[in-house]
Design brief:
Distance between the termini: 19 Å
Number of helices: 0
Shape: globular
Order of helices and strands: EEEEEEE
Helix content: under 10%
Radius of gyration: 11 Å
Structural class: mainly beta
Length: about 70
């Protein structure tokens, strides 16, 4: 779930358990960007999460290993 107001991406299990995948204190890109306002996301078959961020004005990829890429 893209949690724009809290600058985070959350995972919700079928049992309703919520965990944070990445937030503003999480990893940064090589350019120094981090999550600031995610609004849409998609999960790839390799486990990567692609998302748009309206405050950072970009499209990002969070790899299954935890690296944040632009």
């Amino acid at each position: 779930v893209a949690d724009k107001d809290n600058a985070a991406i959350r995972r919700i299990t079928p049992r309703g358990e919520v965990s944070t995948i990445i937030g503003p204190a999480g990893p940064k890109t090589a350019e120094g960007e981090t999550v600031r306002g995610p609004v849409a996301l998609a999960v790839a078959t390799d486990g990567s999460v692609y998302f748009t961020d309206h405050r950072a004005n970009g499209v990002f990829r969070l790899t299954a290993g935890g690296a944040l890429l632009t």
